[in-house]
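Sequence in, structure out. Go.
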Amino acid sequence: MSCWMPGCPALSMCRGLATLPITCLERAKDLKSRLGILLHKPELGHRIGTSSKLQLGSRRRDSSQEVLEWRESFDQLLKSKSGVTAFHTFLKTEFSEENLDFWLACEDFKKTRSKTKLASKANRIFEEFVQSEAPREVNIDHETREITRKNLSGATSACFNEAQAKTRTLMEKDSYPRFLKSASYQDMTKQATSRGISKRSHT
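Output:
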């Protein structure tokens, strides 16, 4: 059907469609305005603000306690996700983060259930961290390296146990004490302690 005649219904429909986006835009603006007024009501704003503050305060209390627990033992540090992140950042400054990365890779490896994936993961971890001249070679003795190599022939979830244990001991006795004495961790403990004192003074 042609729309060249004045007053043609099809032409009117086209004109109506052309104005539709403007109408939609105006409605959207009106809706946004109404929502804005609703969200800025004092009582609603107070409830939202209070809830957010409570949640944030809870997270701060938990993290403060966690930070102080890291100095209790190396195990406590490794149990904490934020502790592992902080320790990893510190190890980067000493160019020895491969030790923690290897330990974490071994932990992930132990969770593997598929025998096919177990073998491929074992080879990948060995090539990246354990074999001599590996891209991210960890500091383990030759004997442990050879034992781990032999374990690959019949890969099980325990094939890196000895190498992982040696790396963990090295971190615990060497890197971990330096981490606790580092300026970054000292700052974190000061902040955690001051938050704890502030909390007690308000109770």
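Check: DSSP finds nine helices and no strands in the chain. The two ends are 80 Å apart (CA to CA).
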